Amino acid sequence: MIHVDRKACPLTDSALRTVGLTKRYGRLMAVDDLTLEVAAGEVFGFLGPNGAGKSTTIRMLLGLIRPTAGRASVVGVDAADVTRAHQVLAYVPGDVALWPHLTGAEILHLLARIGPGTDLAYQDELIERFVLDPSKPARTYSTGNRQKVALVAAFATRAPLLVLDEPTSGLDPLMEREFRTAVTQARDRGQTVFLSSHQLAEVQAICDRVGILRAGRLVEVASVARLRALQRAEVTVAFTGTPPALSAVPGVETVEAIGDGQLRFFLTGPPAPALSVLAEADVTALTVREPSLEEIFLDYYGAEAAR
Amino acid sequence: MLPALVRKTWRDDRSSLIGWAVGVAAFTGIYTSFYSQFQGAAELKQDALPQGMLDFLGIADMLSPAGYLQATIFSLIGPLLVLMCAITLIARTIARPEEDGGMELMLANPLSRAAFAWQRVAAAGSALTAIAAIPWILLMIVVPWIGMDISLSRVAAASAGLVALVWCFAGIAFLVGAATGKRGAVLTITGGLAVATYMVNAIGGMLDGWHWVRWLSPFHYFIGTDPLHTGWHPVELLTLVLLGAATTTAGVILFDRRDIGV
Ligand SMILES: Nc1ncnc2c1ncn2[C@@H]1O[C@H](COP(=O)(O)OP(=O)(O)OP(=O)(O)O)[C@@H](O)[C@H]1O
Ligand SMILES: [Mg+2]
Question: Between B15, B97, B110, which is nearest A83 by CB?
C-alpha cells in the first residue's frame, strides 16, 4: 500500500509556483501578493520596468531572501528548503559577480562540483559558442564575459528549471542570438526557463507566456500571442476614387484621412469585414503594422508614466 | 578529498595568503636573529623610557631572552600583525563576497547556507592557523640556533597563545561578518575590539584595584599569564579557543537565518 502525500505530489505539473508571495522593505512593497504558476517545459518571460520587483521575486524563489508573506515552490519543492530546491534549478543573477582571483575555468569547475549536475561536453560546446576565454582570471572579465560564465554554467546543467535574471543585459547582438539558441535547446530538452527582462523583442521572440509586473504587482499574465491580439493593428491604405466606407465596419476604429487618397485606421479582432469593404474600393497600397510588445508594454505603463 | 569550495577558497585567496605568510615569517625571523645586536640598543632604550611606558608596551626587560621575545614578538607588533591578517582574511569569507555579489551564484547551488559558511570558515581558518603558527615554527628553529637561553616549551606556550588569540578574534570577526554581511563592520568592530581589549589588558595591570578588568580581555588569556616565564596555561588557551568556536557557531546560525545581499 503506497501512501500518496498530496502536498508532496502537486496536482499540476508546475515548474514554479508562488502563492501570495510578498516582500516588504520597510514601507516599500517590493513584491505584493504575487500568485503565479509556470508549467513545466514553458519559457516564461517576467517583464517589468526598473524597480518593479523582478529581482526581488527571483531572490525569494532562490531562498536568498525570505518572503514577508506567502510562499514559493520550484518543481514541487518548497523554495525555502534550499538544499533540495537547488537540486532542480540553475540560476543566473542579474548582476554577475565572480570570485576575482579564480579563472573562468576554475569557477565553472567549482560550480559543476557543487551544482545540481553538469553536462561537461555540452559545457565545452557552450564555451565555444559564447566565445568565452576561460583561462583568464575573473577580475579581468567584462560585464558581458562574467554574464557568459554564469550562463554557460546554468545552461550546461540538466536542472529542470533555469531562473535567469535579465540574462542578456550585458550581451552583444551576436551573443544574444546564441542565448536564444541555448534557450530553444533547453526547451527542447524539456527544461523550463523563467527569465526576467526589459528586452521586449527578446521576450517576444523566445517566450511562450509573459507576466507583467508593475510596482510589485502582477498586472497581466498572458501568452505572447494573446497579448499581441489584445492590441490593435495599424492599417494604412492608399486608394483611387471613392474612399472605402469603413466607419461602420466592426473592429475598425479611428479612421482618419492622412493626405491625398490615404486612410489610416486601427483594427481589432478578425479582419474579414474590413477586408471585404477594402476589396470593393480601388486600393493601390496597403500596409499593416503589428504592434511590438514594446508598444503593448508602453500602453500598460504609458498612463502611469504620463501621470 | 576536501570539498571543492574549500580548495577554491584557498585558491582565490592564494596571493594574499602568501603575502601574509611571507610578512609574518620575515617579521619573526628578522627580529629574533638580531637578538645579539639588539642587546646594546635595548639597554639605551630601557634607560630612555620611563618604567610606566615600558610596562604599557609590555617590554619590562629587554635583556633576558624571555624579555626580548616578549618585547619584540609577543607584546605588540606580533599580535597586531596576525590579528590584521585574521580580520582581513575572515572578512573575505562572507562579508566581502556578499557585498560584491560573488556569493549569490554560489548560494544558488544545492548546498545549505550553514554548509557554505562552515566550508568558507574552514578554508580561511586553516590558512590563518598556518600563518599564525609561523612564529612558533620559526622560533623552534631560530632560538636554539642563535643560542638564546630559554626553554623551548615556554616559547611554544607563548606561540600557542598567539594561535589561540587569532582563533578568538577570527571567531569574533566571522560573527560580525556573518551577521551583517558588511566588510566595513568586520574591520571596524573587530579592529576596535582588538585595540580596546589590548588597552584594557595593558592599563588594567597598572591600576590598583582594576586588575580584574583584565579578565575581560582576550590578551590577558594570551600573554597576561606570562607564558615565557611560567610556561603552559591550558585553561586560558582553551578559553580563547572556546570563545572563537562559540562566536563562529553563532555566526553560522545567524547567517543561516537572514536575508542575503540586502
Ligand atoms: N535591500 C533592499 N532594501 C530596500 N529596498 C529594496 C531592496 N532591494 C530592492 N529594494 C526595492 O524593491 C523594489 C524592487 O526591486 P527589484 O530589484 O526587485 O527590481 P527589478 O524589477 O529587479 O528592477 P531592475 O529591472 O532595475 O533590475 C525597488 O523599488 C527597490 O528599490
Ligand atoms: Mg533586477
Answer: B110
